[in-house]
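Revision sheet: structure tokens.
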Amino acid sequence: MPQGMKYLHVLNGDATLEVFRKSGIPGDILVCREMMCEGKAPVAANISAFFAERSAHLHEQYGIDPRNYEESIKQELLKLQQAGEYDEVVLWFEFDVFCQINLLFILWLLRQLEVKLPVVSLVSINHHPEVPNFKGFGVLLPHHYPPLFEQRVVLKEEDWQLALDAWDVYTGGDPEKMNNIRYRPAGNLPYLAEALQAQLQRLPFTGDGLNAIQRFFLQHLQLGCAPWYNLYNRFWNELKIYGFGDFQLDMITQRMRDAGVMEGSEQFCITALGKEILNNEENYMDYAPRTNHWVGGCPLHNTPWRWDPAQDKPVKLEK
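Predicted:
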């Protein structure tokens, strides 16, 4: 490692923090604690307006204390205002939806700041040869980090443009434009297209109105009731592309219980309605709670957009 270089490392979540500190890699650390893949990502005139609207939305819909958001999330992220004091900003973001959408947000935020940016590099992987069931940086050991640091890639202008365009359409609420990003040259963002596809599959599907995650849960429960932690573990093993934690899965299963397709607390079971929906006898959207539920700029509670698995793209329902 070059001596005397000043690095700022941006980690995606606290799960990586302690082990990263033991890695011996020099530099200061900033932790992104946002979950931009969940809830409304507003279009705003400036950074202050963005954070104000985002905080209000998370408080109203997810019960997140505005004071906690201010201190733990916003103020931590605004340390990026000192990015110009470093020789390099190193972004550590994995392959999954949670990480990739946050990565787009961080790159957008860096470009909004009125600072002269240094070199910005990226460490992004979807597997590790020494970790058979790799799910994220948090499962690595300290000695795994220095080789990854040496393999980081410097983001080029075309990478920045792809990320900024992706963020623009993500917040803009047009799934078709978001889908088009998947087919642009990936450059140094090799996992973005798959993450966008998985995020788009949170739209109701044509046919039964379930999205990919809801269908996953109901199909597993159709085989028999299951303790919540067994169901979540299956999700983490089979749909690790999402990278969601307990908090997000709790919200998803609560909405499904409110819709009447599953029941239980410690143990989940599919209901008669859930079975009817899986059999295409009913449509989930006729029962889904009409709450203020968003993915990026797209309101899922009241959207004409559907995911068509046969065409592998979002389609708009005719009025």
